Amino acid sequence: MRKDIVFPTVEGIRVAVACKDETAxxxxxxxYLLNTNAFDVDNVMVVSKGYSEKxxxxxxxxxxxxxxxxxxxxxxxxxxxxxxxxxxxxxxxYWVSYYVDGQIYDKKxxxxxxxxxxxxxxxxxxxxxKGILHY
Length: 135
Fold this sequence. Notes:
There is one protein chain. This protein has 135 residues and is an all-beta fold. It has no helices and nine strands.
């Protein structure tokens, strides 16, 4: 039963949307998974999708993408996917699952509509880029 399943708290895993080159004529944006822990995370799986609010008359959805990233070493990061700025007006959801010592962890990271904007960008030292960092 669901009440018997242990859902441990996810710590040290971050998702960031960052601009790879702000000076380019058409800047390239990417989504990254950051492991800030002092240990590796194994069997990392990310499910990503974009969608609009249910109350809207015209519901918008992107394709659901499932990506297996393998192991992400301690203190490193990995690019999940490129992201087109034309979908920044949608909810952009990244459901991350991984294992540590045989225990499964998972967490949804949701970038709400219009949150991926210059005013919200911060410097992300691990990436050496500016972007939006989700905890």
